[in-house]
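Journal club prep — side note

Before the paper discussion, L.F. wants everyone to see what a predicted structure for a comparable chain looks like in token form. Sequence:
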Amino acid sequence: MKTASRAQVGLTIFCGRAGDHNNLAMSGAQTVGNALTERLGIPASLIGKPEPALNTSWQTELDAASPSLFSLAAHLDTLLKTHVTPLIAMNRCAVAMSTLPVVMHHFPEACVVWIDAHGDLNTPRTSSTGYLGGMPLAAAAGLWDSGLGNGLPLENVVLVGSRDLDTGEMALIKSGKVRLVSPGPELITQLRTAIDGRPIYIHLDCDVLEPGIVPTNYRVPGGLTLDNLHAASILLAEYEILGLEIAEFENAWSENAEAVSPSVLLDALEPLINRLESTSRLPA
């Protein structure tokens, strides 16, 4: 199996606006990033700054987020050019509109493992809600123009744990253009088959978990347990990992409530995080 040869892990925290419904994930990204700094003993680059959530139309949200998203894209491009493995704590899934095109530019063969309760394959035309966070995979695949680039073939996408899917997203899955690995006892076997030995870039939306495990904006029943996520992490750690981004961890269960630690989440991801560390230390 091909092995990654990047020189180090580049930890990044993105906490600017990105279509937020509330303010909790901007601070949540900082909490996850700070916890990763403590675990790994490496500093984090900070991109964007928390601002009051707009909770408005996708176009207004995109316009407000774009300057910080372009900064993240440039930062990620530099990391990949210098053989650094990205590890990104981000607030919302919409941030992936800026990361995935850069990853595909450097690694056009990459399999994007999208671990999320949702498909995020809507466009401004097909979305019933107009929520920007439901559109990043579609933007990266060129199904609509976000202004941040594209280049992700749909056949390179593997949805994992997705169960709240809209009509258009289901049509893409049924057509065979996108692979879906549903929650259940066959998840690990199906995931191995779907990856098919390819190098992987991993996006984790915390709402893939069963509601009540960690705070998230969306809470969709029928999700993964921490044990399921840990088992998936063990499997994913067998592959060449091009990067990992963690999204949608909210800092508390509600506004002004006590802050929640991401430790149980990061414990479940430990095999994957350890793999990032070990592969990044190999000589280039």
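L.F.'s comment for the group: The longest strand covers residues 8-14. Keep this in mind when we get to the figures.
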